[in-house]
Amino acid sequence: MLIQKPILTDKSQKIYQKSKIYVFSVLPHATKFQIKREVEGMFQVKVKKVRTSQQKPVLQKTRYLQKSPGRICTKLQKKAFIELVPGHNLPNFFRE
């Protein structure tokens, strides 16, 4: 499973309302072709376009009260912005 979960934030809802684009969190090594194939197989829809973006790992602050303070980094995250062919939609993605 390359697709981990849908992203249901306020910003993703505005993107959906404006241009009917769905946002998913995917594995960092997934390619656009693999994401397109998996969405089409999972939801039985036709995908028009897939765009991706990566969020680099960020160094977080640590407390010095711990026994062994070290560097803690966030994980590499990747988002997929999926636009479907007109007439197709994902059921129950955003309840309107």
What does this structure look like?
With about 100 residues, the protein is of the alpha+beta class. The chain has one domain (about 5-60, about 70-85): Alpha-Beta Plaits, CATH 3.30.70.330. It is about 25% helix and about 30% strand. The protein contains two helices and six strands. It has helices at about 10-20, 30-45; strands spanning about 5, 20-25, 45-55, 60, 70-75, 75-85. A four-stranded antiparallel beta sheet has the order 1-2-6-3. The protein starts with a strand and ends in a 12-residue tail after the last strand. The mean pLDDT is about 90.
Q: CATH class, anyone?
A: Alpha Beta
Shape summary: elongated
Q: In CATH, what is the homologous superfamily?
A: RRM (RNA recognition motif) domain
Strand order of the largest sheet: 1-2-6-3
Specify Rg, calculated over alpha carbons. Answer: 17 Å
